[in-house]
Amino acid sequence: MNILEIKNVTKKFGDFIAVDNMSLTVAEGEIFGFLGTNGAGKSTTINMISGLLRANSGEIKILGKDIHKHSRFAKKNIGIVPQDIAIYEDLTTYENVKFFAGLYGLRGTQLHEQVEKALEFVGLSDKHKSYPKSFSGGMKRRLNIACAIAHRPKLIIMDEPTVGIDPQSRNYILNSVKKLNEMGCTIIYTSHYMEEVEEICSRIAIIDHGKIIAEGTKEQLKAIITNTKDVWIEIKPMETIDLNKIEAISGVKAVQMEENLMKVSSDVSVNNLNDIIQCLINDKVEIRSLKEQSPNLETVFLTLTGRSLRDH
Ligand SMILES: Nc1ncnc2c1ncn2[C@@H]1O[C@H](COP(=O)(O)OP(=O)(O)OP(=O)(O)O)[C@@H](O)[C@H]1O
């Protein structure tokens, strides 16, 4: 069964179209990745799913039921981990989770037990009585997750939960996502870190300017670009390169510069390495090293949008 169906949804802010006629389905049991640059429309989409924002047109269903006609049902079945940490610093860890779980109608022993379980799940049981003021960014994130899962929703939506946290908390969160999924939850995981999405997601939608421009398993997405090969060329720092000249070489699809590393994506059927090297030599650019790279989601994104996820 589909846990989420988005059909022809559009959201405008004034004249600006943040989400553009988007359609998408997520099946129960998936870890679904939402990959896009800042401003692509991910948070707007999530805010519409959670009922925080209303779409200008289109339809959103949770477990087959329209989210506005069945708003209580939808809220009960969704847990949102927002991008901006939403916790009360003057409430204790326990009180925070209790507050959010209480919003879903949990009371008494059941409320207490589920709050305890959620805290245990995120590894904050021993911080029960502490105030989150003193917490690290990673601990606040974990508390935020506990607040979103205590009412045991079937669909958990995480909006960039690993931004700005230490690597240890990041691993903790990624493992939590996998564990929640094994426990039967469906997860929508939003990120602009393609390594994370590649690691944990069963299916991925690449979103750009409010539109889904590609969707599928990572293998299916990579298949889009099997006709592309990448070469990384390291040059002497501070040297300038005329990228237009490289772009003009036969077979070259995209050129990207990151400090003194140049990435040239070319049509796999064209052998243009000599031309690229010759072009650099002609411009008296000193080459330090050169390597080929197999395709990943970053390459897919770059090929589809002409831009890098990392630029944002
Ligand atoms: N309330 C608003 N009023 C006007 N424009 C908005 C509003 N909310 C979002 N936008 C614009 O809509 C676009 C999509 O924003 P959104 O926050 O959904 O992107 P995102 O993919 O989640 O990126 P980020 O990772 O930065 O949150 C952006 O250009 C943003 O500036």
UniProtKB/TrEMBL annotation:
<keyword id="KW-0067">ATP-binding</keyword>
<feature type="domain" description="ABC transporter">
    <location>
        <begin position="4"/>
        <end position="234"/>
    </location>
</feature>
<dbReference type="Pfam" id="PF00005">
    <property type="entry name" value="ABC_tran"/>
</dbReference>
<dbReference type="InterPro" id="IPR003593">
    <property type="entry name" value="AAA+_ATPase"/>
</dbReference>
<dbReference type="InterPro" id="IPR017871">
    <property type="entry name" value="ABC_transporter-like_CS"/>
</dbReference>
<dbReference type="InterPro" id="IPR003439">
    <property type="entry name" value="ABC_transporter-like_ATP-bd"/>
</dbReference>
<dbReference type="InterPro" id="IPR027417">
    <property type="entry name" value="P-loop_NTPase"/>
</dbReference>
<dbReference type="GO" id="GO:0005524">
    <property type="term" value="F:ATP binding"/>
</dbReference>
<protein>
    <submittedName>
        <fullName>ABC transporter ATP-binding protein</fullName>
    </submittedName>
</protein>
<keyword id="KW-0547">Nucleotide-binding</keyword>
